[in-house]
Design brief:
- By secondary structure, this protein is an all-alpha fold.
- The protein has 2 domains: 29 residues, no CATH class; 64 residues, Ribosomal protein S18 (30s Ribosomal Protein S18, Irregular).
- 47% of the residues lie in helices and 0% in strands.
- The longest helix has 16 residues.
- It is globular and about 40 Å long.
- The mean pLDDT is 82.
- The chain binds zinc ion (ZN).
- Zinc ion binds next to helix 3 and helix 6.
């Protein structure tokens, strides 16, 4: 009975994002990639580096995907937007 209930909920919420699945909650241990690496300097002139923080459509990934802390997610967003402005990253792809 409870199984049926859970399935319904998962189907509704699990659209390719495993964060909502309680099965993955315990294993998931994300640390901010910028906090954990002292030598990591976010550079808006480096599109290769910023590719990690955008999806294939060119959209900026949310914090639950990047794992970044609030401070660094802001930095990432700013860097990606600057990078787009100087035409090193696309605003939209396809
Ligand atoms: Zn951080």
């Amino acid at each position: 009975m409870s199984d049926k209930k859970n399935n319904k909920r998962n189907n509704k919420m699990n659209n390719g994002d495993e964060d909502f699945n309680p099965k993955f909650r315990k294993i998931r241990k994300k640390v901010c990639p910028l906090c954990s690496d002292k030598n990591f300097v976010l550079d808006y002139k480096n599109p290769e580096q910023l590719r990690k923080f955008v999806n294939e459509k060119g959209k900026i990934l949310p914090r639950r995907a990047t794992g970044a802390c609030a401070k660094h997610q802001r930095d990432i967003t700013l860097a990606v937007k600057r990078c787009r402005h100087i035409a090193l990253l696309p605003y939209a792809e396809n």
